[in-house]
Fold this protein.
Amino acid sequence: MRAWWLVSSALAFPLAVAGCSKPAPEAPPQAATPPAAPAAVKRAVKPPADAPHWDYEADGPAKWGSLSPAFAACGEGKHQSPIDLHGAKPAKLAQLLTSFRPAELRVVHHEHMADVVNTGHSVQVNAPNGDTLAVGEEKFVLLQYHFHSPSEHHVDGRPYPAEMHLVHKAADGRLAVIGVLFEEGAANPSLDPIWANLPTAKGEESHLAHLKVNVDDLLPVSRASYRYTGSLTTPPCSEDVTWIVMSTPVTMSAEQLAQLRRVLVGNNRPVQPLNRRALVVEGVEEQVAR
């Protein structure tokens, strides 16, 4: 349950001064002025006591698979993420050569209030309002999105300054993640509500009670994307995750990037082998037309 704090303000009453002269007329009562609402309410969030410890340093990616039996896929899995997005086949060709089936990508995100959490591994924004992603006939609900710097996915061997992952879940538990790559450039006003309330300490949460975030504005206009089947990029590295990495990057300014890196940097897992998986790029025609 969420903790809420009630802020009260005391009413100021005039003091009656005793004297020989006629008492001054009593001042009319004044209504209390409510305090200004804070931009965000901050609280501490404790991780589960039995959660195995992992990080990006001493207990980093090379050790994840040995830290807990629950993390075995991090070391033994053959369909791991992230990857270098290199040599992708056009969707129509992939349909002929593999079992890949092209599917229209439909994203329905809305403006909503959110909680920004510093998990110690990332800055994560929880999205409780049921935004949806449809890949063909498959439907997924947005759970949260978070940030990595530098990017986890590479494109033709090149990393980007940052990457955002929007994690969606289907009714049967399957996951689909939209990846958005950031390059340094123009300031991104869609990030402002989050960046203004970045929790700087591990376990700190900022509840954006009076701010709204439009998730759809965080995505590029083009829906052209790389698609492949992979895994979570953090423990337990669960596989059979549908990955949709937008092929058009979006921008954030040098100052926005510096703000993010003051909170976290180096939270990127190295790229993993493709291991003969199908890597497809879909919607190239749309991207070129734009």
Summary: The two ends are 46 Å apart (CA to CA). The chain has a mean pLDDT of 79.
